[in-house]
Amino acid sequence: MTECMDFLPEAVEVEVSSTSSGAGSHLSEDHNDFQEDPYADVRDRLEEPRYANHNQKEANHELQLPLFAAYTTYLGYAIIILCGHIRDLFARLLGQGRYLRRKTPFNSDNLQWYAPLLKSWENFYTRRLYHRIQDCFNRPIASNPGSLIHVLERVSDDGNKTMKLLGTLQDLDNDQQREKYSNAPHFVEISENRVARECLNLGSYNYLGFGDDWHVTCKKDVVGSLDDLPVSNSSCRTEFGTTKLHRELEEIVARFLGKEDSLALNMGFNTNCTTIPALVGRGDLIISDELNHTSIVNGARASGAAIRIFRHNDTDHLEQILREAIIMGRPRTRRPWGKIMVVVEGIYSMEGEYCDLSNVVRVCKKYGAYVYLDEAHSIGAMGPTGRGCSEYCGVDTADIDIMMGTFTKSFGGMGGYIAGSRDLIAYLRRRCAGSVYHNSLSPVVCQQVISSFKVVMGEDGTNIGKQKIQALRDNSNYMRMRLQEMGLTVLGHFDSPIMPVMLYNPTKIAAFSRECYKRGLAVVVVGFPAVPILTSRARFCISAGHTREQLDRALKEIDEVADQLKLKYNKSIFG
Question: 33-67 burial by CB neighbour count: b if 16+ within 10 A, else e?
Fold first, then answer.
């Protein structure tokens, strides 16, 4: 286990450009010439200095929770929980209720022989809170995940306990209902006359817009890959799951990041879950940012290593923990730690903030700790050439020991990668469960990611990649600027494509989602337990595929909803 980190990658010179950009552009017809700047009238405001290195105090955006929002949020949860318990009580007294256990002919439902799978209190949140607003989640779509999507309509006959697709207009009960649906402003009928709603997509991780122009940028090569290779190799990487496309993908990732080698795996979440236990184990120490993704948390717990948490983006606290860990050593024995690995993310997906990478690397180099950087949301979406948080913050990738990322956000595919030194990757090919046991990434998906990388790097002979990166930055900063001007509480930093808007109150989670859906906006809302109980939020994800006209329409509708639901806490403590 100790062999995997006994080496540091050799220094690699990487050109780091300024985070400032020139005139914005969207895709032009010949893909080589720039169109007229759609943000010319606000260009000066979009190009105001931003803070990439967190040395300025203005870069630290701590959430100041309004007292009125805190009190009403606690009150809202208290009322919902009280009503839920009252309904449970009457259901047991009267013997009627959606969630009462029914007698069935199956032996597993005989409580004299089997214990219940879920206890009442453990399942209370799902029954009495989540199911009330289940229609706001898991909405199925019937289109590509571009800037516009077709969302299939769903209905429920049991108070949202279960949801089912509406199907066609003929499945409705009467002509009045059919007329109501067909006259709705965003109504569309898709294949087999199924009922759907055309919505502006503000929730998908389609950062570089490959979901919009796939037929132009990637289709030919992706479809052509099926002539030689199957959809699946039905094997892991160490047996018969490696093809020429896997090798080509790993080579292009390593070259893109300035690393010696890389390893491609078939799932982004499992990349963290299976790589971290292969790198560290018992006797080692993981120091993790408090807002790191669940996949990092699961991987750290599975590793058996000791875990310490430092406050989000607080490198002073990180240095304090590192110093204490080195001085005190392991608990009880006081022996030195085998390895110390600091784990951070490029962009934190629920906060929209980028990592204070330059200071994290500085502290880790000072104390000899390894740096593990998760760039799931930042690779392709940050930096002048899309090379992620390291390029954006001016950090040489040679100073980052392990670089992780996914292909699901910016590259229109699936899976993840680990990039590092040649010895590190050779070790992970033998020891990482994602490589040894999991099915390999589909060759078709490999080709999709390869084609996307070539577009981003300009190796397709066009300027599409450059235009996409610029359009994403412009769209993101314009959307953030306008949301802030409304008086909404918007988390995160400029140049980040993720914009969380605070809702706070649990009743506003469903209300915001439903009101946006009525207006043809597909948005993501997030509540407890995914975020702390007081900080429910909506999360907008912006794409290079959005046009300014689409964003202006969305902002107009969001402004109306924010007024209706009293969400403008930056203008008034009452929203």
Answer: ebeebbbeebeeebbeeebbebeeeebeeeeebbe
CA 229 – CA 245 distance, rounded (Å)? 9
Among 437, 307, 316, CA closest to 372: 307
Spatial separation of the C-alpha atoms in residues 468 and 209, rounded to whole Å: 7
C-alpha 357/C-alpha 382 separation (Å) is: 13
Tell me the HSE value of 459 on the side-chain side, using a 13 A CA sphere: 11
Model confidence pLDDT, tens digit, residues 26-60: 445 454 455 688 999 999 888 876 654 555 444 44
CB–CB of 251/257 below 8 Å? no
Contacts (Cβ under 8 Å, ≥6 apart) of 46: 24, 39, 474, 477, 478, 481
**CA–centroid distance for 106 within its chain:** 41
Bridge-partner residues for 262, per DSSP?
A: 419
486-511 burial code (b ≥16 CB/10 A, e <16): bbbbbbbbbbbbbbbbbbbbbbbbbb
Give the largest CA-CA distance in the chain: 77
Calpha distance 338→66 (Å, rounded): 45
Cβ-in-10-Å burial (0-12, 13-18, 19+) of 294 comes to exposed
Cα separation, 235 vs 240, whole angstroms: 5
SS3 463: coil
The single residue listed with the structure tokens 């010949």 is: 30
φ and ψ of 441, to 5 deg: -60, 140
Contact 288, 297 (CB under 8 A): yes
Structure tokens of 388? 């992620």
CA gap 457, 463 in Å, rounded: 9
Rounded-to-integer distance, Cα 260 and Cα 251, Å: 9
* Token couple for 80: 């919902």
**H-helix or E-strand spanning residue 308:** strand 306-310
Average pLDDT over residues 301-325: 96
Q: Model confidence over 77-132: pLDDT tens digits?
A: 999 999 999 998 998 888 888 877 777 777 777 777 877 777 767 788 888 888 88
